[in-house]
Amino acid sequence: MKSLLESGVHFGHQVKRWDPRMKKYIFAERNGIHIIDLQKTIQSIKDAYEAVRKTVVAGKSVLFVGTKKQAQQAIQKEAERCGMFFINNRWLGGMLTNFVTIKKSLLRLKKLEKMEVDGSFENLTKKEIAALAKERSKLQKNLGGIKEMKEIPGILFIIDTRMESIAVAEARRIGIPIVAVVDTNCNPEGIDYPIPGNDDAIRAITLFTQIIANAVVEADNEAGLKIIETLGEEDEDMEEMMNDISLKEEDREIDIESYASSGEGENAKAENTAAEEEHSNDNFPVDVDKVYEEE
Questions:
Q1: What is the pLDDT of residue 283?
Q2: pLDDT at residue 251, rounded to an integer
Q3: What is the pLDDT of residues 172-202, one digit of tens each?
Q4: 222 plus 249 within the same structural domain
Q5: Are residues 163 and 226 in the same domain?
């Protein structure tokens, strides 16, 4: 719970931007934004973790998908750490439903890389070399993360189902299970293992991606659910944790005590008043990554 809070996982979108189908995952509304129920997030993480672990044990691969700016680095880093495939630049239409054609592009990429190494470029003109280098660079950018993928993956892990709607549609069409982080403006229906949480903050995205990568790394561990040291090991209940936790500077407008309790006391009102004076133009708690994404 502490790790989720410090990563800003509980921040949803503005109330007016919500998807009503996410209602069961929303804990409360504070200062114009929705707060996600982290108890349900933890349970969803456990279910997704076990699903990914079983997929890897069965000998199938995991495809990490996240093309938004905040997710690109984390997706590539964690996918490479656990030895799986990733798409972090652009989802090409038909990447799953027309994988036969994608395989031809992958073969072309490998051929160009081989030509560059074995000296084939020495017999070409500068113009031809430049054209081939440009083609290789483009293929590497879009398909580099799945270069060694021989068949369609066993499960998909997706950041932001709204942005990756084509990937979701293709996976559903051919029956590939989906693990996805769903924010308060997303539709959780059709997602096999939805994880309610902030899909805009870099820290939150990194935490979720690390957990799924750990599921791949620890696939041989039959005990499973060895997520991260600080997650799921706390004995305190949610209310105690909300009172004890100290949020980072940019998240301090959220009153954690009012989040844990059913009503807002005098302390909550005092903090909300201070926040309103400091941010008179935008009367809601600030999550820097999310505000940047919305603008």
A1: 45
A2: 42
A3: 999 999 999 999 889 888 899 999 998 888 9
A4: yes
A5: yes
Same domain, yes or no, for 88 and 105? Answer: no
Task: Please tell me the distance from the alpha carbon of residue 99 to that of residue 147, in angstroms, as a whole number.
Answer: 12
91 and 25 share one domain: yes
In what helix (H) or strand (E) does residue 220 lie, and over which residues does it extend? none
Mean pLDDT of 109-128: 87
Residue 70 vs residues 77, 154, 167, 292: alpha-carbon distances, Å: 13, 25, 18, 10
Check whether residue 215 and residue 156 sit in a common domain.
Answer: yes
Domain of 39, in residue numbers:
1-96+152-295
Tally the domains of the chain: 2
Token digits of residue 2: 């502490």
| 98-109 as b/e: b if 16+ CB within 10 A | ebeebeebbeeb
- Give the DSSP per-residue string, 37-58: -HHHHHHHHHHHHHHHHHHHHT
* CA–CA gap between residue 115 and residue 149 (Å, rounded): 21
Where residue 187 sits, what CATH number does that domain have?
A: 3.40.50.10490
12-15, Cβ contacts within 8 angstroms, sequence gap of 24 or more: 12/36, 12/183, 12/184, 12/185, 12/198, 13/183, 13/184, 13/185, 13/290, 13/294, 14/284, 14/294
Contact present, 26 and 36 (Cβ < 8 Å): yes
The pLDDT tens digits for 271-288 are 444 444 444 444 445 555
